[in-house]
# Entry
Amino acid sequence: MTTAYTIQDVAGPSPRTLMWRRITGHVGLMIGLAGLAVVVAVALLAPWLAPHDPYTQDLSRRLVPPVWAEAGSWQNILGTDALGRDYLSRLLYGARVSLLIGFFAALGSGLIGTTLGLLAGYFGGRVDSVVTFLVSARLALPVVLVALAVVSLFGGSLTVVIVVLSLLLWDRFAVVVRSATKQVRANDYIKAARAVGCSTSRILLREVLPNLVSTLAVVGSLEVAHAILLESALSFLGLGVQPPTPSWGLMVAEGKGMIFFDARLVAIPGAAIALLVLCINLIGDGFQDVVAPQGGS
Amino acid sequence: MGSTEPLLTVRDLSVSITVPAGILAAVRSVSFTLDRGETLGIVGESGCGKSMMSMAIMGLLPPHVAVRAETLRFEGMDLLGLPERRMADLRGDRMAMIFQEPMTALNPLLTIGEQLTETYRRHRTAGRREAREKALHLLDRVGIASPERRLGQYPHQLSGGLRQRVMIAMALMCDPDLIIADEPTTALDVTIQAQILALLAELQRESGAAMIFVSHDLGVISRVADKVSVMYAGSEVEGGSTAQVFGAPAHPYTQGLFRCLPNSGLVARGAPLGSIPGVVPSLIGQVSGCMFRPRCALARDACLEAIPTAVVGDGHRARCVAVAAASATATAPQLEVSAP
# Structure
């Protein structure tokens, strides 16, 4: 050994601590996370939180006003709907449908889009042309119309809605992952990995994919919000989750006939959808800020 | 195969890329052989095909790049005929590559330890511990203090010089027979450069591996190489032992390169440094004759024809009409290259 080579490390907080500080320091992100945590907790604990069974109808207690109205009582805090079902209980159970569909549709479309994007970005050439064509073809399809057609063919159920949304929402994943893969691919460490004999699948999974995690998290959160909105739209049109399953979109649909007499039937589930989507979008935006190299606003 | 066969035999290696404007011949029939323990220095300016050639030997060029050779044999194997799987088995194991940019050649998301042991475990049926031992040993060998701590660190926690040492350790993980170093010191500052060169030379001497050292820096090449190949526009213009080429450069291009150096002995003290007029020609399309012709003060009509390889000394060769003519009349090549 001819040379001794030492450098003194600068002692500082570990990357994990720094990341944690940036997350907790981001107001929007924290609000979004708190909101989402509440909705997730509500969805998980619905059987214990709900004061009544969401399916039990009581025609003698139809359209009971909420507690803040003159005729309201604490028995039905948010009142009852046109069939006498407790509105609060239905709202709590409805969170389950929204979250399930949002999460699994984003997961399914993420799998499809990421696979296509990785292949297109890494191999380029003909594979890229095929994927680009698929993305263009997918973008040419109006999501709501196709979803409506498929759901009306196969019948509306949680599974059908999740599968249909997975097959329709992968385009953004594919586009983003494709361009990110192209960037990562150009790095020398990909060449270096090939130079030490790594197989293509290993390079894709171990060298490229970990570099895309932050991008995927951002796109994923936006797609969760997108899927939740689409589920609500489909349920509102009567082709999503079928009654009597409580779903926020369905509740808006059921309440729309009464909108001039009892606006709360539309306003409450509508606000719930809007708040959940807002929280998820806040998380997506916040995450983007936090993971960006010069991030942290 | 007899024991006399060199480790690496390259004969008439050509690399060409199809671009919209035509066919770009990046490397034009380059030939050399390399034995264990030898270092071949490849010099040339940017775009002369140095990197393309090393990538071609490693089999790392994308499929749309055509690699042809009369012979491309490594340890008795025909590299061009090997399926990609077998090639991948060789890469990192029998032949390793050191890249130019230590800042980008390490994956930022994997620790040094993961990247080092990955290579070893890919090629050896070795356990985690054995690979770790090997990595520790090599990190120590390349002069990295407290290797245990370094194994758990990420590339951004290391300086450029340290990273290049890690890259060297990575290349040596499987004790390769051939190391291709593609401008390994270009991205480093001069003091670190000297340390890395000394380290490379020492490690190579110790392991007995053959090395191809690609650089555009004549000074660097003179320090590490046993033999030199000067490339211009994709072809070798002059080759020979380092002493031959550096002691008595024969080709006008090589002489022009030395004239650009302050202490080459070709420029008088106080006189302005030389430069080679003109630019490297386009490599697209068919070319005949000498590619250096448009920039050469000795250009003549014969330069448009096929260029003979003039033997200047034992193993010292130059592809130049003027040199061939001069050596035919048995006079030492005295060439006039105008310095502006």
In short: The first helix of chain B runs from residue 50 to 58. Residues 331-340 of chain B have pLDDT under 50 and may be disordered.
